[in-house]
């Protein structure tokens, strides 16, 4: 039995993961900004579920939530940074305050929970950190420049973190889901109030009022939750876990396109070194 600490559990993947972890008999610290959304979990698993309010942009709330997790269960074995949301805008359309809030949640919120949970994990020389990213970090869809940037930042940080924590027996896994049937493209999707007409045929088609994909995504959050648990419980957890057939297909498309581009410019690349005499 392990203790999981999961952020962003009101709906979607976070909720599915909390339910799956608790159903397996694990303890779970289940967090959301509005704890009324977690009432059913608390009632169903009164001995296993600790529901806490947590806005990951509030450092004091992060510290308090980790303290309560330690007090109730003795420590955190698995930290899952799932809290986050989408933002659709052309780069030119992005509103500075909105973009700052996006980074505060999707990137710096995860950093804050990691820094709060790590001292105990290091002391025990064990633990697992799971950072929920997106295939968007790799494919950079039109209109998702800022969202993709938050997830690319999360992945870059995670790569270094993995190397830093390996000597302590702490694993780091980045999860890149494809399209899953959650509220991501609905309630959880933000966008600027003002749109620039020149982008109507590109970014405009992905604005909430024009996007018809919500509710038809191929991915099942319940299956994704089981996959994450299986990866964490493996003796050698992966660093990168793709979720969904669409994510796998897009991963290889991008990899092949990038390799072709690099090969095309190979001679220019290697010609920048000092000449050997």
Total beta strands? 9
CATH superfamily: NAD(P)-binding Rossmann-like Domain
What is the CATH topology descriptor? Rossmann fold
Assign the CATH class. Answer: Alpha Beta
Mind summarizing the main beta sheet?
A: 7 strands, parallel
Query: Kindly, what is the distance between the CA atoms of the first and last residues, rounded to a whole number of angstroms?
Result: 63 Å
What overall form do the CA principal axes indicate? globular
Structural class: alpha/beta
By CATH, the architecture is named 3-Layer(aba) Sandwich
How would you state the average pLDDT, rounded? 94
- Proportion of beta-strand residues: 5-15%
Helix-strand pattern, N to C?
EHEHEHEEHEHHEEHEHH
**Major beta sheet, strand line-up:** 3-2-1-4-6-7-9
The domain count comes to 1
Describe this structure in words.
With 277 residues, this protein is of the alpha/beta class. The chain has one domain: NAD(P)-binding Rossmann-like Domain (Rossmann fold, 3-Layer(aba) Sandwich). A seven-stranded parallel β-sheet has the order 3-2-1-4-6-7-9, sandwiched between helices. α1 crosses α7 and α4 packs parallel to α6. It is globular, with a radius of gyration of 20 Å. It starts with a strand and ends in a 7-residue tail after the last helix. The model has no long low-confidence stretch (mean pLDDT 94).
């Amino acid at each position: 039995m392990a203790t999981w600490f999961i952020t962003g559990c009101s709906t979607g993947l976070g909720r599915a993961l909390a339910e799956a972890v608790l159903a397996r008999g694990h303890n779970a610290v289940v967090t959301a900004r509005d704890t009324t959304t977690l009432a059913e979990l608390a009632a169903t698993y009164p001995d296993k579920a600790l529901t806490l309010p947590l806005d990951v942009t509030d450092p004091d709330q992060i510290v308090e939530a980790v303290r309560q997790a330690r007090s109730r269960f003795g420590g955190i074995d698995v930290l899952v940074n799932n809290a986050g949301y989408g933002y659709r805008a052309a780069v030119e359309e992005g509103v500075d305050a909105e973009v700052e809030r996006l980074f505060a949640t999707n990137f710096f919120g995860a950093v804050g929970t990691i820094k709060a949970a790590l001292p105990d994990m290091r002391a025990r020389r064990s633990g697992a950190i799971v950072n929920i990213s997106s295939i968007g970090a790799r494919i950079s869809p039109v209109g998702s420049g800022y969202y993709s940037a938050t997830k690319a930042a999360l992945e870059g940080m995670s790569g270094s973190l993995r190397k830093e924590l390996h000597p302590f027996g702490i694993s780091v896994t980045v999860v890149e889901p494809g399209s899953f049937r959650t509220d991501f493209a609905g309630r959880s999707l933000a966008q600027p109030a003002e749109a620039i007409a020149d982008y109507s045929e590109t970014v405009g088609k992905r604005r909430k009022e024009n996007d018809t994909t919500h509710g038809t995504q191929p991915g099942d959050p319940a299956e994704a939750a089981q996959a994450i648990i299986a990866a964490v419980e493996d003796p050698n957890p992966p660093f990168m876990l793709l979720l969904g057939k669409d994510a796998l297909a897009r991963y290889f498309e991008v990899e092949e396109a990038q390799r072709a581009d690099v090969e095309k410019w190979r001679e220019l690349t290697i010609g920048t070194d000092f000449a050997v005499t």
